[in-house]
Amino acid sequence: MSSLATSTQTQVIAVQDLRAQVRSAATKALLRSLGKSALIGLSTFAIVLIIWVAVLTFSGVSPYVAKGPIDVWNFLFTDEDAVANRAEIGANLAVTMRHSVIGFAAGLAVAIIGAILFRLNRGIESALMPGALLLRSVPLIALAPVIILIVGLGTDASVAVIGGIVVLFPALVTIAFGLNSASAQMLDVVSVYGGSTLTAIRKVALPGALPSLFAAIRVSVPGAITGALLAEYLSTGDGIGRAAATYGTQAKFPDLWASVVVVTFISLIIYTVVQLIETIALTRMGMNPDRKA
């Protein structure tokens, strides 16, 4: 009995040591991935600043029209009217972010449902994919009057449709690719045990498509903001989309540049945050976050 107890205790200690090693390796991998994501985000920000300054320096555009990083900083933080400037841009930004969320949610939801339907039935994919390609190929400015006529001018539905179209196609293609890349052996296991196609998608394809889903979300974030700006310009008449157009016609170039810079900066931040969440989620699931879809 003593030898059996000793053997059992040894096995327990070995299992605990193995778990500690796995947790340690996972933590190190997570920290490396987080550091890499943060470095990419900072590098992207620095590259944007360098390109911005270089274009203004060598393009010869009048300083009255073209504003640099220092001009935007002064407009937002050090000028006499900086508080009022921040308040105005902040109010417009809040509207644009709400519209971005609407378009993002609508486009991504349709993309996920469409990708699952494509995985369930190839006939559905053959029937619907040409429509998605059509939406992708026709300029939204040409479609906007028809969309507004159907769903109404200035409505959230018009924002959802216009923003959703921008998000839909790249997200649909990326998620569908991920679902179709599921392990054939794992799918066979589900089939052998009597699982349906829907069960195989739920148990195998969807978890395996997480890298593709996160890739779709990363691509959709700037797309949703672009769609929101377009919807504001064409339909709702508010937010930064309309304000930027108004600033341009009124020669309020500091306001225009500050609005564009703030939207771009927010887009980069959200993209980086999604990338960090992706890294954490994939690392916890034992997937390699560096293998992007």
Give a quick summary of the entry.
The protein has 11 helices and no strands. With 293 residues, the chain is mostly helical. It has a single domain, classed as MetI-like fold (Orthogonal Bundle), CATH 1.10.3720.10.
Mean pLDDT: 85
Give the name of the CATH architecture.
Orthogonal Bundle
Distance between the termini: 54 Å
Q: State the CATH class.
A: Mainly Alpha
General description of the model:
The chain has 293 residues and is an all-alpha fold. It has one domain: MetI-like (MetI-like fold, Orthogonal Bundle), CATH 1.10.3720.10. The protein has helices spanning 2-59, 69-78, 82-120, 122-137, 140-151, 156-180, 184-192, 197-208, 210-236, 239-249, 253-284. The longest helix is centred in the first third of the chain and has 58 residues, at 2-59. 30% of the residues are buried. The model has no long low-confidence stretch (mean pLDDT 85).
Which terms would index this structure?
MetI-like fold, 11 helices, 293 residues, 86% helix, flat
Secondary structure layout plus pairing:
Layout: H1 2-59, H2 69-78, H3 82-120, H4 122-137, H5 140-151, H6 156-180, H7 184-192, H8 197-208, H9 210-236, H10 239-249, H11 253-284
